[in-house]
Amino acid sequence: MNSQILFLGTGGDSIVVGKQYRTSGGIILNLNDMQFHLDPGPGALIMAKMYGINIRENVGVFVSHNHINHANDVNAVISAMTHNGLDKKGVLVINKSALYGTPEDSPFLKEFYGKCVEKIIEADSVNKLGIEDIDIRITKAQHGENDTVGFKFITKNFTISYASDTIFNKEIAEQYMNTDILILNVVYPGDTFSKTNLNTAQAIKFINFVKPRLAIITHFGIKMLQADPLYEAREIQKETKIHTIAAKDGMIINPQSFSSRIIQKTLKGY
């Protein structure tokens, strides 16, 4: 069965996303021939078409929190996935604020499109679910929204974790133990201070704690682009001794190459 990770975008902050210095369409996980769309931000449909992704094949859409760069295109993706509700299908896993809104913000999900999927799962109310043979864990994050979540996908051969927007602490990192591929949103370079997002120094602590077989950094802010994500990834790898890649728009990773449960193959070009 085919599996891959495709980055429809690697942009993080409002400058990078607003100027589209890096695109922001989210991440496509194809796991055992099932397609999942994580955090469909602005331009998700355009980037999917560019990289040959048929949104109709989505089995699930996952939204970590109610920020524009993570949830802006959730309605458009559901519409494309379901023929605007004519073919009701799939599951939407979404955090509370993106589903219901907050006193300060309206939810990105519109009521109509919530009715287009077969099932909505409020991510804050469960800690695990299963889709066929994929075990999915809902993880906690510490971000501007208290109910921000991450996702951990456990298959027979490998485990992929997406921590979403968060800072580092041991309680958060502990949720991602036994991960083969760890995807971290590292917005800032070096030790640039942030109360809500990872910088390179925190990513080093996170990766040293989890010890994945592969770490991928993505979701870059303007300061990170100026510093060069490739350089930051090399610094992380130097400090952690863990294979670390700075994601690029359109980058594809074969997760089986980094499985701890099957014979490891070598990815050329990295």
Would you kindly provide a written description of the structure presented here, covering whatever features stand out?
The protein is α/β, with parallel strands linked by helices and 270 residues long. The chain has one domain (4-258): Metallo-beta-lactamase, Chain A (4-Layer Sandwich), CATH 3.60.15. The chain is 26% helix and 28% strand. The protein is built from ten helices and 15 strands. It has helices at residues 14-19, 44-50, 68-71, 74-82, 96-100, 111-114, 170-174, 200-210, 222-227, 229-240, and strands at residues 4-9, 24-31, 34-38, 58-63, 91-94, 119-122, 128-131, 134-140, 149-154, 159-162, 181-188, 198-199, 214-218, 243-246, 252-253. A hairpin with a 4-residue loop joins β9 and β10. α8 packs parallel to α10 (229-240). The radius of gyration is 17 Å and the shape is globular. Mean pLDDT is 94; it is low at 263-270.
Short synopsis of the structure:
Helices cover 26% and strands 28% of the residues. The protein is an alpha/beta fold.
